[in-house]
Amino acid sequence: MIPQNLLQNPLALTTQKCTLGCPILDRCLAGGVPCNSITELVAESGSGKTQLCLQLVLSAQLPTSLGGLAASSLYIHSEFPFPSRRLQQLSQSFRSSYSHVLDSEYNPLDFVLVRGVQSADQLFDVLLKMDSVLLRPPTQLPVRLIVIDSIAALFRGEFENTPFDLKRRSSLFFKISGKLKALAERFGLAVVVTNQVVDFVGQAGGLNGLRVGNLGSLWSSGRRVCAALGLSWANCVNSRLFLSRNEEIVGEVTGLGGVGAGDTVSRLTRRHLHVIFAPHLPESSCEFVISREGVLGVER
Amino acid sequence: MELARLPISASQRGKLISAGYTSLSSLSSLSPSTLAQDLKISDNEALEILRVVSQGSRLDKPDGSHAIVNGAQTAWDMLHEEESLKCITTSCVDLDDILGGGIKCKEVTEIGGVPGIGKTQLGIQLAVNVQIPVNYGGLGGKAIYIDTEGSFMLERSLQIAEACIEDMSGNSDFLQKDFQSCQVKAQPKDFLQNIFYFRVCSYTEQIAMINYLDKFISEHKDVNVVIIDSVTFHFRQDFDDLALRTRLLSGMALKLMKLAKKFSLAVVLLNQVTTKHTEGSFQLTLALGDSWSHSCTNRVILYWNGDERYAYIDKSPSLRSASAPYSVTGKGIRTATSKCKRIKIM
């Protein structure tokens, strides 16, 4: 055994990152999603987890000079159906905005491998067979990005709330995460997993309210939430990002106006990306919007 | 003196020779029970042989100490030795205070806490701080960083190293001007060069790594700290046989303890937290179970207290239990600032 040379590339003393396809979001994450580790996106449904993941599988194809990995990616989805129409839509705007580097024949969808899984055990089986896919990628580009959307959906249904099942569940967490990290290290992969939230119940300071990360509490849609899958899963990821969504009422409410009178109240959904914990990032956050073209950061 | 001249019975001598013990030196460091097993004799008989052997060897070298007490020290000597040992600073004054100066060499210190509390940050900080040159009050040593989770980030260690150099040059103004020459020499890249980084991806690799450390450190004598981040991760996967896990872990802990003593280096083990089910309620505790908690000399728990990070000495033979705030900043681990603010307000 010999130690790794930390100065392998003396010109760039950073871990390689995969751009999110938006300079403002990239700045918040110091370049994007890091390779060789697992990044988790935590958010309630409709907050933009899947949008961000779809954008990632496209931007990973960019050359390294533009912050990408020049690689194809593997999208493992557990929530059906796979949003292929949205990916198609995003890929069109991706092609037009990078037409100066991409061939006119280039179809980004050719470099996204999609696999559906229905259970946690099936996910583990897929990961076990992954070596051969990564060694001999079915596309021209090597696979450097794995997205699992979502990990929570696999675990939240199948297991009961008994000590035996919980133990089996957390053992499977560590098996899956161990395998993912080993693959990430061996092939220099960026791994992104998405997770759901659960409502925060009970008192602050109790075990449920156990503080994990920079933010004292997580708020989304006016509810206090925490990441699903509990403490043992939190130990399995390297970085955790939280996408929040909060509605703000902007504009005047006229006399008859009420919650039900939608016409008179104009609402604005404000979305934020927060760094909950990451070995290389300070506590920070960034506002973003989801548009037809994708997920874009907003300068404050 | 040779085996043939030992005043033991012919049958014993025959057994010794046929078991391969042909010289006195081969017997000198042997335990009675091993000899009894090898020769298929009773423990008492083996002890008797060893006593004769040690008498014989003492006749050879009159000043040689007794074999059984060989290598023993008095408590007084040990105290002196301990006082002369240097500590690795954590860069946080309060944390150093409760630790009695910093992370101690020759000891195994376990540090645990929830994700995001700063375990890896502290690990990287120690890997950098161990390299502070002797004339700045450091150890001027090197670090071994064993990464089991993939959380070691190059850019972060570079940041921490830069801040460390900045602090050193800041301090030198108060000391002497001679250090100007050192300042020019210290480069963040040199700090990275002196961290031996190993990435292990399974528990088998982890055990092999720890077995290999002895050899590696013998070849790199200037290593003063071994950091394992985290000791837990691979041992929480796929272990149905918990008894096996306990045996492997305690074997690993013993080896680390031995390394710490042999090479006077600090061993820092980072651990995760888990919930423990006791009497119908769940409690937070460090992972790997009760028997593991005996494996470390010191145990430090990191936790949130409101918006501040705190460290608590949970177990230590020589330190009183105490807690202290610390903060994780862009420069690395530092003294918590809010405490200063509070004093200012008062």
UniProtKB/TrEMBL annotation, chain A:
UniProt keyword list: ATP-binding, DNA damage, DNA repair, Nucleotide-binding, Nucleus
Stored Gene3D superfamilies: P-loop containing nucleotide triphosphate hydrolases
Domain RecA family profile: 14-197
GO annotations of cellular component type: Rad51C-XRCC3 complex; replication fork
GO biological process, one term: t-circle formation
Keyword ATP-binding annotated: yes
Xref: InterPro entries: DNA_recomb/repair_RecA-like, P-loop_NTPase, Rad51_C, RecA_ATP-bd, XRCC3-like_C
A molecular function (GO) term: ATP-dependent DNA damage sensor activity
Localization of this protein: Nucleus
Pfam families (UniProt xref): Rad51
Chief site of localization: nucleus
PANTHER family: DNA REPAIR PROTEIN XRCC3
Protein name, per record: RecA family profile 1 domain-containing protein
The organism of origin for this protein: Vitis vinifera (Grape)
Biological classification of the source: Eukaryota, Viridiplantae, Streptophyta, Embryophyta, Tracheophyta
Automatic annotation (TrEMBL), chain B:
InterPro entries xref list: DNA_recomb/repair_RecA-like (IPR016467), HR_Repair_Mediator (IPR052093), P-loop_NTPase (IPR027417), Rad51_C (IPR013632), RecA_ATP-bd (IPR020588)
Signal peptide coordinates: none
UniProt KW Magnesium keyword: no
Origin superkingdom: Eukaryota
Subcellular location: Nucleus
Gene3D superfamilies named in the record: P-loop containing nucleotide triphosphate hydrolases (3.40.50.300)
GO cellular component labels: Rad51B-Rad51C-Rad51D-XRCC2 complex; Rad51C-XRCC3 complex; replication fork
Keywords annotated in UniProt: ATP-binding, DNA damage, DNA recombination, DNA repair, DNA-binding, Nucleotide-binding, Nucleus
Listed GO biological process terms: meiotic DNA recombinase assembly; reciprocal meiotic recombination
Domain RecA family profile: 84-273
Entry keyword DNA-binding: yes
One GO MF term: ATP-dependent DNA damage sensor activity
Name of the molecule in the record: DNA repair protein RAD51 homolog 3
Source species: Vitis vinifera (Grape)
Taxonomic path: Eukaryota, Viridiplantae, Streptophyta, Embryophyta, Tracheophyta
